[in-house]
Each structure stands twice: as structure tokens, then as C-alpha cells.
Amino acid sequence: MVKALKLTKYGGPEALQWEDVEVGEPGEGQVRIRQNAVGLNFFDIYVREGLYPFPTPLIPGQEAAGVVTAVGPGVTDLKVGDRVAYAGGFGAYAEERLAAAATLVPIPSNIDDVTAAGALLKGCTAHMLLNCLHVKVGPGVKILVLAAAGGVGSLLCQWGSALGATVFGVVSTEAKAAQAKEDGAHHVLLQSEGDFAEKIKELTNGAGVDIVYDSVGKDTFMQALEALGPRGLIVCFGVASGSPDPVPLGLLTRKSLWLHRPILLHYTNTREDLLACAGEVFNALSSGIIKLRVNQKYPLAQAGQAQEDLKARKTTGSTVLLVDSA
Ligand SMILES: NC(=O)c1ccc[n+]([C@@H]2O[C@H](COP(=O)([O-])OP(=O)(O)OC[C@H]3O[C@@H](n4cnc5c(N)ncnc54)[C@H](OP(=O)(O)O)[C@@H]3O)[C@@H](O)[C@H]2O)c1
């Protein structure tokens, strides 16, 4: 038996129950992993609260790093002792688990488990947003990152500015603004200063930005649209404040805007794409293009508290749940 956090019905942090679970032996195409570090993601809160009605009971958590301890039939490219990480599916909130070998990526020797667990999902998301959409980010491109001091936001600022873009950020506190600036954002706006679209217009001589990365959703969507210039792209990739209201097409027509709602899974659903995306993230970490800010660590058993702190906007950068201290 190992310990895991199980969700049997949607609710608050108390809905995550620290229980004994049987892991068993790996089946065809599976390996067993002893996990060391688990990445916390805002999606875990959506799952716990039932925003998306996944059938329960389930063990939440999408991202972790650990060591292969057993290999099932048909697995040829992994062996006992290999260090692996993953980003997707469920089942990460556990000391040990079974996982399909095809979903795992090897962790380079220069990257520790805490970094791998905190960076893979958020880093792949940042890579997808910056490099895989129809507008490529580079010199001369102006991007606006909402929640610029968050887990994904911090990586977007660093990577976006390294690609040569002019980076604008929006955050809620002075401390978060200081971090976003350190991460390469050229202009950081505080929400308390009022309508950020107006400020963006001023800063860009009325032109607006080319891309808005909006992970906040309901509270920011309309301002995000206003902040765009003609033919701009709004990328709604998260809904931390709730889902935006339905969008009349006429709103896009005014400036020939593009609206995109990407999900990482659709950019990494072949083995080739997954390995390529993870490779980009590990290379960016290794070369120093991005640096993971692990600003919070909690024992895995306290994932509920960690989620509450993320939801209450108390966190910055990445949060990692440690299995050893559970
Ligand atoms: N589409 C995909 O495939 C994909 C993949 C990964 C992540 N995501 C999305 O990316 C976003 C960022 O994820 P993360 O794990 O890195 O979280 P995060 O950005 O570290 O945390 C959320 C941040 O959103 C801001 N926020 C604004 N309004 C909020 C509200 N009403 N409630 C809570 N937070 C609010 C807060 O920053 P301020 O205090 O500065 O406003 C908060 O720190 C999430 O929306 C997540 O769903 C999407």
C-alpha cells in the first residue's frame, strides 16, 4: 500500500482524502513509478471543484517526476532506475503509481526532480503558446501576459523576452510586478491601476499588442480584447476567475481578431510531439533561457492547502509538492 490523495466528491480542500491505495504490478505498456516531486497546477483546482465533471473517485494531479521501479510487458525504452516525468492525465497526487510508458519523458541528468515536476507542464504550455500557434513570437512582436508572476506567466515572460518580443505583464501586487520585471517583462501593470487596456494603448501609441495570453478568463477577457491591435490574437488558455461569457462574433470583427482556446494535450498527443515539446523545455532550462522559480514547496499530503493558496493568489512561480515530506 502507498499513500495518495483521493477525490471522491467535488468540494473544498477537505475533499482530498489522504488514503492507502494499492498500486499493483505494471501491465502491458506500463511502468511503476516511485514519485519524488509533484507539480501543482491551477487545473487541479478546477478538477477538485468539479468545473469539469470528471467521474470520481479519482486521484488528481497531472505532473510529477520520479524513478521507474518496475517495468511491464512490452516496454522496451525504459528500465528500472530511469528517472522520468510526465505532464497530463490524472494520478500524480500519489507516492507511487502505474503509468503508461508512452506518456513519460526521460529527465536529463542535469535537471533535478523538483525542477522537472514544476517545469514540465507549465514549460510545455509556455512553449506551445509562444512557438506553436499561428502567430510566432519574436522581435517586433508585442505580447501581453496576464498573471505574469504565476507559474506559466513567469515562464512566458522569461521565454517571450528571450525570443525578442516586447513583453507587457499584468499582476495584482507590487511584489509580483518586481518578479515579472526580473523575468524580462518590459512593462508591468498593476490591476489596481485601473483598465489595463487603456494603459497598453498609451504604452503602444494606440497600436495595441499583437497577442494577449489570458489565463484569468472572466474578469479580464473584455479588457484583453481591447488591448489588442488589428488582427491581434487573444489566447484564452485558462479560466482562473471563471469562464468568460459567450463572445458575439461582432466583437472580433471590429479589429479582425483571432480567438484561440488551446489545450496542451492537443499539441503533445503524439509521442513525437510530446518528446519534442519536453525537449524544448529541458533545453531552455539547461541553457538558462528560462529559470524555474519554485517559490513554494509543501508536503504532498498538504496539497489541499497548496491549492487554496494558489486559488487565493498567494503564490508566485511554481509550487511543488514533495513526496518525502508527506
Ligand atoms: N490550456 C492549457 O493547456 C493549460 C495548461 C497549463 C495551464 N493552463 C492555465 O494556465 C493558468 C496558469 O496556471 P498556473 O498553474 O501557472 O497558475 P498561476 O498563474 O500560478 O496562478 C493563477 C494566477 O492567476 C491570477 N488570477 C487572477 N484572477 C484570479 C482569480 N479570480 N482567482 C485566482 N487567480 C487569479 C493570479 O495572479 P495575480 O494575483 O497576479 O492576478 C494568480 O496568481 C491557469 O489558468 C491554468 O488553467 C492551461
UniProtKB/TrEMBL annotation:
Signal peptide, first to last residue: none
Molecular function as annotated in GO: oxidoreductase activity
Phylogenetic placement of the source organism: Eukaryota, Viridiplantae, Streptophyta, Embryophyta, Marchantiophyta
Domain Enoyl reductase (ER): 11-321
Protein name per the record: Probable quinone oxidoreductase
Pfam family, one: ADH_zinc_N
Family annotation (PANTHER family): QUINONE OXIDOREDUCTASE PIG3-RELATED, QUINONE OXIDOREDUCTASE-RELATED
Organism: Riccia fluitans
Keyword annotations from UniProtKB, A to Z: NADP, Oxidoreductase
Sequence intervals crossing the membrane: none
Listed InterPro entries: ADH-like_C, ADH-like_N, ER, GroES-like_sf, NAD(P)-bd_dom_sf, QOR-like
